[in-house]
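PROTEIN DESIGN WORKSHEET
SECTION A - STRUCTURE
LENGTH: 324
TOKENS:
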């Protein structure tokens, strides 16, 4: 089976596609014949050695896969050969076969398909955990999503609407904002050419109840200045590269909350509660309240180009590798 290997830390161009032996599943594990693998911003950091977790090269990046179970280990009761599944493998996902724990594997919800399922993992539970568990978003509230055409941003639009909110999408290009408009947002802001604070206040009629911020950099303070009293500012990530410093006088004056969100860290320590997050996502999908976007797809061989596009902000919604 082929795998994309990070043989040394560096840019995507350093990844090497290698032939490797298939791995047998151990107790409680299943083997998945991978049909699609989702890319996340974290993958671009991991291969450069810039993420908080630093695997030692050589390693295979990629955490989100969808495919068909082709072998099961001892004690596996929840899945059987032939099942269509999506799974969080941590690493090893950019490969034709991956071995994962059954506790991190889920049946693919009806109608989702391999590509959208691979794009759903990580982004959707992050957005639901952020908006529901951490942000306590209520129906009727206004949500400002930064980087709204990115992976977690697109999921936040969908989840925000499913929770009954009114969503304002902010992104860097008009093409990205068109893609957001098509997903039913109430308003859009081009934060490269418009004043984010002014426009967010105008569009929300005075201030937004929640901000979902996966970007950081200069956008953070502008978005914080657009928050309404009792608003919640959700700190998701720093894709812009710069970790902003917040002026606490703004937090005082706005009487708002700044709320940290680390879905991965929380999920590792709260597996039952995380199951409940996935169950809720399954329910929202079943009832038709969620519509995960069609991803931008690349053949597996083009993994370097896909990662490069992600790093250069050229991806709309999600990038997904297709196998076979
Ligand atoms: N806290 C958590 O639990 C959690 C979970 C998952 C991900 N995250 C974090 O969330 C962030 C986004 O992840 P993602 O997978 O959604 O990424 P993504 O799909 O690549 O989206 C990132 C977006 O950030 C914007 N951006 C602004 N400056 C950028 C730059 N210099 N380089 C790249 N993108 C830039 C881009 O949108 P525009 O062009 O429109 O600005 C891009 O679409 C990352 O920091 C990731 O680590 C956090």
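SECTION B - SEQUENCE
RESIDUE ASSIGNMENT:
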């Amino acid at each position: 089976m082929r795998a994309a290997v990070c043989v040394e830390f560096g840019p995507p161009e350093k990844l090497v596609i290698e032939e490797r032996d298939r791995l047998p599943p151990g107790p409680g594990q299943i083997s998945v014949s991978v049909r699609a693998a989702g890319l996340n911003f974290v993958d671009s950091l991991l291969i450069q050695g810039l993420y908080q977790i630093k695997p030692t090269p050589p390693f295979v990046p990629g955490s989100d896969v969808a495919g068909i179970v082709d072998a099961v280990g001892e004690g596996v009761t929840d899945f059987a050969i032939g099942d269509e599944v999506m799974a969080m493998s941590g690493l090893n996902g950019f490969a034709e076969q991956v071995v994962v724990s059954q506790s991190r594997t889920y049946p693919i919800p009806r109608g989702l398909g391999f590509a959208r399922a691979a794009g759903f993992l990580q982004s959707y539970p992050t957005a639901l955990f952020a908006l529901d568990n951490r942000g306590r978003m209520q129906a009727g509230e206004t949500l400002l999503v930064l980087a709204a055409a990115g992976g977690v941003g697109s999921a936040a639009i969908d989840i925000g609407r499913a929770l009954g909110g009114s969503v304002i999408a902010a992104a860097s290009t008009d093409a990205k904002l068109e893609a957001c408009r098509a997903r039913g947002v109430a308003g859009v802001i081009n934060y490269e050419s418009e004043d984010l604070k002014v426009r967010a206040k105008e569009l929300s009629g005075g201030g937004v109840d929640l901000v979902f911020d996966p970007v950081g950099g200069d956008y953070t303070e502008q978005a914080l200045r657009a928050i309404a009293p009792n608003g919640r500012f959700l700190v998701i990530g720093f894709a812009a590269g710069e970790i902003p410093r917040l002026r606490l006088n703004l937090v005082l004056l706005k009487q708002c909350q700044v709320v940290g969100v680390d879905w991965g860290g929380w999920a590792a320590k709260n597996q039952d509660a995380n199951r409940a997050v996935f169950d809720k996502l399954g329910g929202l999908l079943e009832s038709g309240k969620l519509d995960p976007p069609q991803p931008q797809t690349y053949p597996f061989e083009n993994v370097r180009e896909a990662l490069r596009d992600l790093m250069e902000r050229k991806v709309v919604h999600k990038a997904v590798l297709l196998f076979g």
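SECTION C - NOTES
The mean pLDDT is 97.
The pocket of NAP is lined by residues 40-42, 122, 126, 147, 149-153, 171-172, 176, 214-215, 236-241, 261-264, 310-311, 313, 315 (CB under 6 Å).
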